[in-house]
Amino acid sequence: MIDEKLIHNARPASKIVESIDESWRQFVEDLKEQTFKIPFKGNYRCCVKDGFFHVEAYVGLLVIDKLYDGHNTYLLKTPIKHEPFTLYGEYDQTGDFRDFVSDPEIGCHYLAMSDMDAGRKICTGDIQINNASLNSLEALKAMALEVIKSFRLINLTSLGTVILPEEHSALRDVLSDKSKDTDTKTKSLLDAGLIEPLLT
């Protein structure tokens, strides 16, 4: 009963105080939106991009030199090479791992993105990634090496968005042609002299 009396006898809140209180709450919310939790301690290169924290996981040579069509493995007669190729682990504002991204974007296994300004995520295919386990720089770098190894192989049975340098436009055009099935693409690549069977 006393609570009801106190509420009944209470003076209306000051509009100035309400305004200050609302302004302070908005300020705190704005701070939260701009605050990132660092994924892990240590010395490493990183940047904030498109609302995500990008941690440098691999810098070096990218090589793409094999192709698999579901039945056979082939060698690219002219391997795709680029250096430096940088792979980043992408972490959200809470410090949780989300995806791998690269700079530049070169390869055949990128996910299509509706907002191209945000860049493409890398499809890691058969590599099993336990996001919670990538909570150290060592674990992130080890997984990045696995992704770089997987990038060497163009898997026709699970192609993503194909992004290749202009000097490999003939290969890019065949791989990107969605009207052709896997067998037709393999035949086109063989006929064009772009691939050769891998002799085991």
Order of helices and strands: HHEEEEEHEEHHE
Extended strand count: 8
In terms of DSSP E residues, the strand content is 25-35%
Total domain units: 2
Helix content: 25-40%
> Mind describing the biggest β-sheet?
6 strands, mixed
Q: How would the global form be characterised? A: elongated
Give me the secondary-structure category. Answer: alpha+beta
Gap between N and C termini, in Å? 88 Å
In the predicted model, the low-confidence regions spanning at least 5 consecutive residues are: none
Number of helices in the DSSP assignment: 5
Q: How is the quaternary structure best described?
A: single chain
Average per-residue pLDDT, rounded, comes to: 85
Rounded Rg: 25 Å
Summarize the topology.
Blueprint lengths: L1 H8 L5 H20 L11 E4 L2 E17 L4 E19 L5 E7 L3 E4 L26 H15 L1 E3 L5 E3 L5 H8 L5 H10 L3 E3 L3
Parallel strand pairs: 2-6
Antiparallel strand pairs: 1-2, 2-3, 3-4, 3-8, 5-7
